[in-house]
Amino acid sequence: MNDNLSSYLKRYIDLTEQENERFQSFLKKTVLNKGDFLLKAGRICTARYFVVKGCLRLYYIDSKGNEQIIHFGLDNWWITEYDSLINQKPSNIYIQAIENTELLTLNQTSFEKLTLEIPKINTLFRIIMEKTFIASQRRMEYMLSYSGKELYQKFVSQNPQFLQRVPQYMIASYLGMTPEFYSKIRSNSV
Amino acid sequence: MNDNLSSYLKRYIDLTEQENERFQSFLKKTVLNKGDFLLKAGRICTARYFVVKGCLRLYYIDSKGNEQIIHFGLDNWWITEYDSLINQKPSNIYIQAIENTELLTLNQTSFEKLTLEIPKINTLFRIIMEKTFIASQRRMEYMLSYSGKELYQKFVSQNPQFLQRVPQYMIASYLGMTPEFYSKIRSNSV
DNA sequence: CGCGACGTTGATTTGCCTCAACGATTGTGG
DNA sequence: CCACAATCGTTGAGGCAAATCAACGTCGCG
After folding, report:
1. I need a surface site. Which of A68, A90, A157, B103 has the fewest CB within 10 A?
2. Separation between the CA of A133 and the C1’ of D21 (whole angstroms)
């Protein structure tokens, strides 16, 4: 039983003690070292992951060969690649640990059993999905509306914890700019 | 009973005839004229909408005063503004009919009753949410990876039906460019 | 008819990229 | 423990994609 997860769940649905235990009995603890991959392009994603502790990046390689970071996964977030998971098709996405990371894995067959057994779990994952979507839509609005410098300033003020944990070139990629330009923004030369 | 909706539902969940009828009894038919608003910034979004026939645009006004189109809603799509609906907060989004449009409205209190009564409905909306998210993530990848001209070409080949129905300046906005630049791409002068 | 909405075209500007060179730091094998 | 490479960040010069601004053409409609 993981307490982080239990209190996470409480925020969204009411589970009895038995249901909570039953839920968590389907989860498998996974440990990744910095640099390890949870998913590589070409593979089919088979699970949803709850990050207990650590940090992941979700990225793809675009047609020009650049790594584009879409998303970070930190402590107490669920992360997965939905297009591959839902449609059972090869991923174009990589998910990689950028710190030593501890995860709980809920694979798709367990997920399906679980939602039949405890229908409330559907509600949980609907809510997670909604929150994920809202965040993604807000990010899109930011990218469309703000200059590089504005994006940087907003990111820094809203996510100070990242700066300590994530190398600059990854933040640059997440913000949709080159590391060089990111550096120039930081040094105020732009 | 709406047949478009019935066959839409069949694609995602198994409902008995009674459940289908019960579901649809919660829906309210709404008709909008071209130009009418389903939601305006500052209001709280209270429902999910199924577009039976017509076309909507979902957009916001950015800090420079430009309309930025995030999404179109066409026949047989669900549309809503999740951030406002889920978090019950004032929307920064407008949803407007760009053709005369016929909708089915599922308001949030009905939605909540419905999911209690027929838990499978949670699955339905989880799936809709997943599909919406996947589309949004793919769009983000496109915007980050491709030039204006490439975006235009992909859009045209994947959505030829839009060109007949939607004015150019809206497509330009959806693709994240100015109408002037869009026009230059079309005339091949860029 | 005349006005407003929409689209086009050209001149100019600009935000960001590319490329290249060069520090600083980390880690690794001899 | 040092040498060396790899990784990461910085800085500058030059270039390009797309925005801005402005003028003008066209169409549909009150």
Report:
1. A157
2. 37
